[in-house]
Amino acid sequence: MSLPVAATTEEIEETRAWTRGFYNGIKSDIPSWVAQYYQPDAVLNLGNSPPVKGHQAISDSFEKQRAQRTSTKHGILHVDVFSDRIYVQTQDTYVVKNDPEQKEIKIKTLVLIWKKVDEDKLSSIDIYLDPTPLLERIQLHP
Length: 142
Hints:
There is one protein chain. By secondary structure, the protein is of the alpha+beta class. The chain has one domain: Nuclear Transport Factor 2, Chain: A (Roll). About 35% of the residues lie in helices and about 40% in strands. The protein has 4 helices and 6 strands; from the N terminus they run ααββαββββα. It has a 6-stranded mixed beta sheet with strand order 2-1-6-5-4-3. Strand 3 (about 70-80) and strand 4 form a beta hairpin. It starts with 8 loop residues before the first helix and ends with a helix.
């Protein structure tokens, strides 16, 4: 296994801007967002769930998640950029649909985005989090 190659200062800044756009874009129309940021055969790996491949399947996965929540906010805490990947640490805040308290569930997440600095779209994304508090709240308020 080889170590990732460091990116130039310019590549780092461009990739950080891309990352901000990526997280801001998820608030919009999911299929358009997926088409803009994901390669057609991209793979979504969410925790230990089976991989999801391709625009339609990825869009469906995010739409299913969105249907369970009133709101989702992604707070970017840190971004590390290498020539072939991006590591993003976020603190995400969720509010579950049908929750009369509208309790905010905060979850720290580590995301590994497989995207080369000279490309516009990611080829794969690995999302690592412990969704237990969110899933428990969803079960309380189906």
